[in-house]
Amino acid sequence: MGRGMKIGMVNMEDEDVSEWRVHGQIITVHFQKVSELLEWDDLFPGQIDEDLEQKDDRQIGAEIPMPPFYSYSYTDIIVVKLPCKYPQEGWKRDVFRLQVHLVAANLAVKRKKGKNGKMKLIFLSKCMPMMEIFRCKELKKREGDWWYYEPNMAKLAQKASLPIGSFKLSLSLREIEMNKVFDISNSKSREAYATVLHSSAQYVCGAITLAQSLLRTGTSRDLVLLLDNTISKPKRDTLIKAGWKLRFIKRIRNTRAEKNMYNKYNYSKFRLWQLTDYDKVVFIDADIIVLRNIDILFQFPQLSATG
């Protein structure tokens, strides 16, 4: 591991860290522990009251305390003790566990390069670190409860830059922001909105309306529609005029669907993963009307969902 390094210690106050002193200077990262009264649903509620948002201009949603990162900007290794309440029910939704992950991620992203340009994170935990933040392929070695990661810093920086909680991720529908265009991507040519017509030509009108509503928001992304020959040529021509780029697919049958039900071919949505000429795709059902620009969704770093 080497010597003369600066080693950041996160949530390691109850551990014996003397053996780490052989490798360099120990830097204890101090931060205020999140309140025990704060629950997961406070950050990620099942439903957001838009009326409340419109009535009140203050920031809605709870905060997770973070350390002053500028005080810990020089580190070569970050050693982190992760809380693990497994096998308790809901152990993955431990807010303190989330806080420690976020502290570690932000320390790694905001640090200035030390002796070695590659960032190293070592976790002490019976539970695997959150895959949503530290990817499986970034795990280089594991010994017992010790997990050694070398994260992709560009991808980690994307994740660390995201706001915490559904309230901050939700897009405001206030009139003053309705027409704001989030045109901040450097790869618009490889990003697309997509929908699927897999069960009925009755959704053609909905798909036309969806395309027009997206274009009226000012988006410059491609509009891609997956369909098969059950949609007649006149209807396909109309869809093209509405703004869609058509991709023909072979429908995938849902073997559990009841006879003559609308979801008979809803597994056709898996064909979206075959749009490999795009880096990011935002799927929208064909019966949706988009009221404002939502291009900010393309900034989310990985598989995401919204409703």
TrEMBL record:
InterPro entries: Glyco_trans_8, GNT1/Glycosyltrans_8, Nucleotide-diphossugar_trans. This is Hexosyltransferase. Keywords: Glycosyltransferase, Manganese, Transferase. It comes from the Eukaryota. Pfam families: Glyco_transf_8. The keyword Oxidoreductase does not apply. Its EC number is 2.4.1.-. Belongs to the glycosyltransferase 8 family. One of its GO terms (molecular function) is glycosyltransferase activity. Coiled coil: none annotated.
